[in-house]
C-alpha cells in the first residue's frame, strides 16, 4: 500500500516533504543494516522498536471495532434485518478461505511472515524510490502497520482529533506506527495479526472487513471465496473506492486482480497455470446490499418492520446496552450483537395474511393483530394491513398504505383503540378475587339505571343507563358464565358496581393495560371509582396489551412483561443477560382458572360446570377443531371498533378493527365475524403441531352453587347479511356479531 494516497495519485509538496524527512530519519539505519543478513536485521528491528506491548493503546490489544448487529427470527436462521453504522462483522481466520489469506499477503505484504512488523528494508526501498520521483509512490507499510493505522483511525473510544491524527502525514506519526507494529509482532502470532487485519480493512462499497466484503460483492461467506474472487478483493484495499467493481472502475479492478494473481505466483502460493485460469474468469459479481434498520427488512416482508421497531424501542430501555438512550442506540448499531427475536415467521405470515384479508393495504381501516406466548411474555407476531415504510402516501392518506407508527403496540402518537366488551374480563376477575363466585346471579334488565350522572340519549332520568345490544337474547337471570358468553352489558355494569369500579381499573392495570391517552390516564388516577363505563371497554388499548392481559389468564395468573427476544449474544460470543421472561404472579391461580372457565362460553365451548348456553363467537370452536380455547368479543359504541381476543394455554391473540386516523369512523358490526375468523386462524397456526393442552377447572368453591335450569338461546330475528360469505346460518352470524 502506498504511504500517502493511492499509487496513481500525484504527490503534493507536503507529501514530498514528509517523504524526504522520513527518509532522512531512516537513512542512517537503512545504510547501516542494508548489508546485514535478513535474520540479524529482524532481530535488530525488534530490539529497536522503542516500545513494548504493555505500552500499546488498549484498542490495539483488544480492538473495539464497530460491527453490524443481526436480528433473526426465533429459529435463529431467518434474517429480519441488520443495524450498523459501519458494515462489518468479524470472523475467525478459520472461516476465511486459505486463498483469500494468501491473496492479501501477496497483494499487500509479501514479506509478512519474515519481518518483525515493520519491514525496514521494504520501507527504505519505497522511500528511496519515492524521493527520486517517477510519477507514482511505492508502498512501504506492512499489513501490521496498516492494521495499526486502521484501528487508531476507527477506534470509537478515541476523540475525533485523535482518530484524524492516525493518518497525519508526519514523521512522528509514522515512527509511532512502526513502534506499535513492532510491539504487536512480538506479542501476537502472525495469524492473529492477519485475522485482525482482514476483519478491519476497507474493501470499498461500504464493506469493512472480509465478511462484509464477501457478502457485498459475491453474496457468500468468506469461507466460500474462490481464487479469482479472493484476488479481486485483495486488490481493492489499496484504493477501495476507485477500484470497486460496483461503484468504481471495473477495468482497474480486473487489472488489480491480475496483479494480485501474479504476486501469488511470485510467493509460490499458486502456480502460473492457476493464475492464468483465474485471470480468464469473467467478473461474476452478485452484489448484496445489507439491510440497515427496520425500514430495510427483507424484500416481501416489510410487515416485519413493526416488530423490528418494537424490538428497537425495547432495546433502548435496557441498561445492559448502555447508561443512556444514545449509548444503547450506538450499541445496537456498532456492537456486533446477534439477536434471536421471539418473532415466529409462520405465525407472523398467517397474521399478516388474515389482517390483509379483512382490509387491504390501501384501506383507511386497519386490523392490527398481536400474538403473545403465555408464561413467557414473548411476542410471537405483530401484523397489520400496512407497509412499514417511510414512502409517501397518496394525498389525504396519513397512515396508509405506508406508515412507521406503532399501530399494534402503541406509543408515540398511537394511544390505541377501544376494545369494547373484552374489558368485561377485568370486572369478572375483580369480582372473583373479591370472593364472589362464577354463579353470582343477577336478573339483568334491558336497561340498567346507574348512580352516574349523565345527559343525552343514553341516560335515564339524568343517570347513565347502559343497555343490552339484544334484549331478547341477553336479558334475564345471568351468572358470570352466560353473562360473559352472551356479553350482557347490564350484568357486568351491575357487577362492577358491586365490586367497585376502581378495583376493576386496578385489575386491568395489573394485567398490563396501559393508559396511553391522557384522558384515560387522568381518569384512572383521579376518578377511577366513578368510571362506570370502564367495564364496557371505553379506554383505549392496543392488541399487544390486550393479548398479553389475556395471556396472563391463560398462564393461570402469571403476568409476564412483553419481550421481543429469545437471546442476545455479544460480538465475543458472550450471552447478554437480557430477554429472559420477567414474570410475577398477579392473580390467584384458581381465580384465573375460573375466569377461563367462563371464557369458554363465548367461543362455543362448554365450561367445566356445564353452564355455557350461548356465545358471541361460537365459530372459533370449529376453526380450532374442538381444541380447548377461550376468548371474548368486543364492540365499542356505534361499532366504532370490533375486537376479538382468544387464547389457549400456548398462545393469546388479539385483533382490533379500527380506523387509526379517525376514531369517529365506525368500522360497523359486519366486520366482527371476519375479525373473529382472522384471530382464530392465527391461533390455529400457532398451536399446529403442539400437543393439545386442557384448561384446568376451577374449584367448586369458586364456581359456587350453579344449580339452575340451563337456559337455551332464544331465537333472535333472522336476517341475511349480504356483506359476508360465511357459510354458517344467519342466526349464528347474527350471534357472532353481537357482544
From TrEMBL:
<protein>
    <submittedName>
        <fullName>Penicillin-binding protein 2D</fullName>
    </submittedName>
</protein>
<dbReference type="InterPro" id="IPR012338">
    <property type="entry name" value="Beta-lactam/transpept-like"/>
</dbReference>
<keyword id="KW-0511">Multifunctional enzyme</keyword>
<dbReference type="Pfam" id="PF00905">
    <property type="entry name" value="Transpeptidase"/>
</dbReference>
<dbReference type="Pfam" id="PF00912">
    <property type="entry name" value="Transgly"/>
</dbReference>
<feature type="domain" description="Penicillin-binding protein transpeptidase">
    <location>
        <begin position="370"/>
        <end position="676"/>
    </location>
</feature>
<dbReference type="InterPro" id="IPR023346">
    <property type="entry name" value="Lysozyme-like_dom_sf"/>
</dbReference>
<feature type="domain" description="Glycosyl transferase family 51">
    <location>
        <begin position="79"/>
        <end position="264"/>
    </location>
</feature>
<dbReference type="InterPro" id="IPR001460">
    <property type="entry name" value="PCN-bd_Tpept"/>
</dbReference>
<keyword id="KW-0121">Carboxypeptidase</keyword>
<keyword id="KW-0808">Transferase</keyword>
<keyword id="KW-0328">Glycosyltransferase</keyword>
<feature type="compositionally biased region" description="Basic and acidic residues">
    <location>
        <begin position="702"/>
        <end position="739"/>
    </location>
</feature>
<keyword id="KW-0645">Protease</keyword>
<feature type="region of interest" description="Disordered">
    <location>
        <begin position="693"/>
        <end position="739"/>
    </location>
</feature>
<keyword id="KW-0378">Hydrolase</keyword>
<dbReference type="InterPro" id="IPR001264">
    <property type="entry name" value="Glyco_trans_51"/>
</dbReference>
<dbReference type="InterPro" id="IPR050396">
    <property type="entry name" value="Glycosyltr_51/Transpeptidase"/>
</dbReference>
<dbReference type="InterPro" id="IPR036950">
    <property type="entry name" value="PBP_transglycosylase"/>
</dbReference>
